[in-house]
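pls read this stuff:
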Amino acid sequence: MTSIKKLASNCETCVTKPCQIGCPLDNDIPSFIKEIKKENYKEAFNILSDSTVLMSVCGRICPHMQQCMGSCVKGVSYEPVNIGELETFIGDLSLDKKWKISSPKNTNYKVAVIGGGPAGLTCAAFLRRNGIGVTIYEKYDYLGGLLVHGIPDFRLPKDIVKKVTDNIINLGIEVKYNQELGKNITLSKLKKEYDAIFIGIGANLSNKMNIPGEELQNVYGANELLEHSIDLDYTDKTVIISGGGNVAMDVSRTIKRKGAKKVIVVYRRSKDEMPAEDEEEEAARMDGVEFLYLTNIIKIKGRNKVKGIEVVKTKLVKKEGESRLSPVNIDGSNYEI
């Protein structure tokens, strides 16, 4: 508890609350940290509960430096307040202490929530807290969505996800598993039974590179690879990861831990422009992942199966009307991996 109070004492409790402005959920960050300073942990939980039911999750996996911590005024000259760790502490403590999220008396309204991922769970929880009856229709036999099959256990332990989802369901939410939209359930039928329908089935399709060779065997989108747990033998293999976000870090670390000889992250821009959190990139390096910056994949080579890739070096230029530096291929710098 002492270390947590020390972390909290770094917060200046700004009146303007720039960290709250930087939070997509509008968490009242200065107020909950203020309660931690006074060791009023239950009140800190109540404050956070006004805007989130995923504290233990968001505290661990949110891109804090792009959001709340990146907006912290302390970060101008010093280290920003470690908001993620403080939120994780309160979230985990609430699970251990079994603190309940309050829900009022029932109304006569009923809502169907399709999808039990973070969006569906959050929607269901806040509907229920307003006295509305909720039924979640989930296509798998578990809740959590990408929290389970999209984020590795070393970043987000599955037992934490289970505790968080159980706490939400204990609000009095009904769950129907193995119910897939268009297969087991239809919107027309649900419309007859419910006052409203929330569709939170995710957008779990990877972006395409739109380059020759993407159709070859052993080319996978990261999201599909994680969601469907495709059983591949990475032993002594070389694996190329295209992209520099947190998903790329998750995939690269997962594959390296599964025995790949070499994992190389190829990114079109420089290290400074990488969207992944610095700590996630550093963790990948510690796991043995290699990085190739200012490099663009232009072709995946092979007859039926991947044999290699063709890349080209890039340079960054400032284009009119664009806030980010844009990568431009350098003619004649092509080579193969």
Summary: The first strand starts at residue 110 and ends at 114. The chain has a mean pLDDT of 93.
